[in-house]
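Hi L.,

You mentioned the student needs an example of a multi-chain input paired with its predicted structure. This one should do, with 450 residues in total across all chains.
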Amino acid sequence: MTTYLMQTNGIKDLLVSFTETRKIDSRKSDQTIIAYIGFLTKKQFEVLNSPIPEDMQSVVFNALRNLIVIMKDMQNELKLAFERHENPTTAEKCLQIMPFISDLSNDLDQFVKLRNGKIIDSVYKNTRILRRKARNFSFLKSIEQEMEGINLTKKEIEDVINKYNSNLEAFLLIDK
Amino acid sequence: MEFIIIDSSVIITTCLLWKNEGTDGKIFLRQRRFAECEALFELVKNNKKNIVCVITKTVETEATTALKKAVDSLIKDNNFKISDILKKYGYETLKSIILDQSLDRLEDTVEEYSTRLPLDKAIIEEIINKEIEVFFKKIMPNTVRYFNAPSVIKKMKGSIDGKKEILSKSLDSIPFGDKILYLKGEPLEKDKRIMAEAIYISRNNNDGKRVYLASLDYHFIPNPIQIESRLSELCTKSYDHLDSRMRDLFEKNFNFFGDKPKELLLIFSKIRFS
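Structure written out for the whole complex:
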């Protein structure tokens, strides 16, 4: 059975090979990353169909979503680096973020085994750490990128955001 | 040097800024008081030599909890319970993005604008137990949330201005009027902690001089006067008049001055910084 960490190590090994050979093989990176994203997306649907509590589903789903978006960014950056002959600087940059991806992957594997609240807290914490690091390395540049492929209409999106806004107002008790 | 302590209500207000250009068109949403809160942070940014902005861990944690609860309760809302798995995937993705964007803004705000000052937890607990709790125990019996209007005001015909004038005269005529203070209930534990931190910062970082507390929470800032009539159904009206006496008592006793960001901006516009 493939674990999250095994999949992550596949990406890491690929990036290491790029830095060692000082050459980016964008066909190979596309293949490996697309397969990894496919694995993560499948896991997202499994989580939504699973009997675990909804709040835990959201934490795991959020972790997987961040991994997917960062991977898509990485794929684009490696492709651009190949075209611009920026080798292996971009691969080195991607490698710097891999330890945080590994930490989160480890947590996700632990969650599959143990399914408890303590692991969920660690999944949440490591997702935030990964996201912060990714932003520091100029991944996750735009909200449009993160919204890509979301199959909701403009009205459906607005309804959710308006509801979020009302929830915040209720907390703030503004002008009441 | 001026100190501005930021309350969670101000940070939370700046955390929702939704701007995206989708295939269906642009969506733009922000909280009602976003502009004034953002303007206060701009003031801090442009006057770093003269203003110290403090966002304590208590405030940051409270803001994080509020943002997460606001998103979590989207799950529980039946309008967004979906049986179609693809739609559910879409909603979960959107929820996840909303939470991440808000928490990103919170982290960026703390990093960009705030100075972290050392706070002695033992002393803060002491301030809460020996000063703040004692203060509220003494003052709470003299506070009201609403003024119970005489029934005649509700039944009177006439304009709202006319009723306001009569209300104002009735307030003046209450025998203990000057001792009745408007307060939206006793502050919660977390609010008292924020007060204690403000007091600590005033004493330890500002030689006991006044520090400012930027907030939209009526536990810290002047309260609007409301009248309520229990004659028939509950009827509450707000008037423009703000009662600042509780806030003034906080300043007199504890050296922190709370107000909305737009009021603090007015105050700071009159200060000449070197």
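You could point out the following to them. Residues 54-84 of chain A form the longest helix (31 residues). Helices of chain A lie at 4-21, 26-48, 54-84, 89-114, 117-136, 143-147, 154-172.

Best wishes,
N.
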